[in-house]
Design goal:
It is built from 11 helices and no strands. It is mainly α.
Length: 279
């Protein structure tokens, strides 16, 4: 064993012997039980801190309701059916706008990553459009599409498609050129290169791109519902603010967080099932 290898082994053994400190050793991987405990703690610690602050009366309950008050408000909305209607309305708008953006963004991004000419043609315009705040288009969308569901879905579409295109393009650019050249050398056609090499190699990164960018859709649907909506989580937050119902606002925010967490877990599961070779 060389001196370098011996020193590395000694360092690893020293890290294992320091208990909790070993979790923060560079490259250390916690066990499944430890990882689960840390994940539970990340949720439990803020909840306990919130309950302690509320019970001690450090903040007026009008501004910081207790977890119990928020839970009662959540239960009341669930019993009345309002919560279910809001969830269905907001989730439908998010998936409609984001799905439409994804269907267009993925093939455009792949083409931009593979063909430099397409990239040169499209990237300047897309790079400029993505810096325009999607919320700034709300007046035009209302003028063009009215106050129904169309402007809300269009807002989500505009707010996510440009980021999806550029991030998919970047993922495609990391496909090793050797894979493409080998496929062409073996007689592969352009379509086979795109579908069987580029798309498959980039699929894990594309799924991660969608997982990250769908959060933007939820931000935008709340903004859209604040402007013009009859039902929806964002609309309910606006109504609660009007009547100073902070407990209801907290309840709606928690619902938004839980839905987002479920969607995130869904994308992670999709990644494991479709790209087992990459995880």
């Amino acid at each position: 064993m060389t001196a370098t290898a011996a020193a590395a082994t000694k360092g690893r053994n020293a890290g294992r012997g320091t208990g909790l400190l070993s979790l923060f050793t560079l490259g250390a991987t916690p066990s499944g039980a430890v990882r689960g405990g840390l994940q539970v703690a990340s949720l439990l610690i803020p909840l306990l801190a919130w309950a302690a602050i509320a019970s001690l009366g450090l903040v007026d309950e009008k501004f910081l309701p207790s977890p119990g008050a928020v839970f009662r408000s959540l239960a009341s909305m669930a019993e009345s059916g309002i919560l279910f209607q809001d969830i269905v309305a907001s989730t439908g708008r998010v998936f409609a706008g984001f799905l439409l953006a994804t269907v267009l963004a993925v093939p455009i991004g792949i083409c931009m990553g593979v063909y430099p000419a397409v990239c040169a043609l499209c990237e300047p315009l897309i790079a400029m459009l993505r810096y325009m705040p999607a919320a700034a288009f709300i007046p035009l969308l209302i003028i063009y599409l009215g106050i129904g569901e169309e402007p809300k879905i269009a807002l989500i579409f505009l707010g996510t498609i440009y980021f999806n295109i550029l991030m998919v393009m970047d993922a495609v650019k990391f496909v090793p050129k050797e894979l493409i050249e080998t496929t062409l050398t073996l007689g592969g056609r352009s379509r086979q290169v795109l579908v069987q090499v580029v798309a498959r190699y980039s699929l894990p990164s594309i799924i991660d791109t969608l997982r990250i960018n769908i959060a933007t859709s939820w931000n935008l649907v709340v903004v859209a519902e604040l402007v013009a909506a009859e039902v929806g989580l964002g609309k309910r937050i606006q109504l609660a603010q009007r009547f100073f119902r902070t407990d209801q606002i907290f309840a709606e925010l928690i619902v938004l967080g839980l839905i987002g967490f479920a969607i995130d877990m869904g994308f992670r599961l999709l990644l494991r099932l479709s790209c087992r070779w990459a995880v």
